[in-house]
Amino acid sequence: MKKIVEFRGVHKSYEIGSQVIKANNDVNFEVLDGELCVIVGPSGAGKTTILNLLGGIDTVDEGSIIVAGKDISKLNKKELTLYRRYDVGFVFQFYNLMPQLTALENVELASEICNAKSNVVDVLKQVGLESRINNFPAQLSGGEQQRVAIARALAKDPKILLCDEPTGALDIEIGKQILTLLKDTAKINKKTVIIVTHNLAITEIADRIIQVRNGKVVNIEINENPKPVSEVDW
Ligand SMILES: Nc1ncnc2c1ncn2[C@@H]1O[C@H](COP(=O)(O)OP(=O)(O)OP(=O)(O)O)[C@@H](O)[C@H]1O
Ligand SMILES: [Mg+2]
Fold this sequence. Notes:
Blueprint lengths: L2 E14 L2 E14 L3 E5 L6 H8 L7 E6 L2 E2 L5 H10 L1 E4 L11 H11 L6 H7 L15 H14 L4 E5 L7 H16 L4 E6 L10 E6 L2 E7 L12
Parallel strand pairs: 3-8, 3-9, 6-7, 7-8
Antiparallel strand pairs: 1-2, 1-4, 4-5, 9-10
Helix pairs in contact: 3-5, 4-5, 5-6
Bound molecules: adenosine-5'-triphosphate and magnesium ion.
């Protein structure tokens, strides 16, 4: 399999007043095409910073990020907007759906913005929501809202799916259903899926586990025998 993501010597600091926080301090790792990768570490380790840099929401201070052969740290603002729009899909802990739009409309909007060819209803069926497509987010459970968010990301047909604590707001059973959907997205739909979490149990389902602490990668593990989601517990 070929490399789809590579971080090379990535540094990112934030300044609050006179204090400088090194959120990413020489981060290096790679992810192969089609892998399910879990980035794990304690609160404040720099996980969301990695995802924001990889997703083009934020820019590096130093180093490069290569995505599908393109160095996104060299893109100008306009190119970065196009990269965010077409190449990456985002899934967040608190779903971030538009409250005034139905499930269908939330997914349609994303699909229209990037001229995606996916059939929106089919994508909602794929995430198991065919009977709820005309409901508003407030009428859906947390797990159902997260399915809409995943459908929204998948409708763009992105190269990589970036998920920040996607099960963080869900109870264990619903969280496992969402992880199953994300694992299927990697294995059946052949997308590269990167999940950020503080939950070590989730690492057992991954092909690649990247541990971060204090802004650094402290361990990288290739898991030859990832567990089915049904076998993990927390
Ligand atoms: N926009 C910002 N301004 C200032 N400091 C920031 C900003 N974003 C992140 N930080 C700091 O950078 C460090 C890494 O933050 P990050 O959000 O990447 O951690 P995390 O691993 O995602 O943590 P959590 O598990 O709590 O979400 C933290 O010390 C955080 O306070
Ligand atoms: Mg975070």
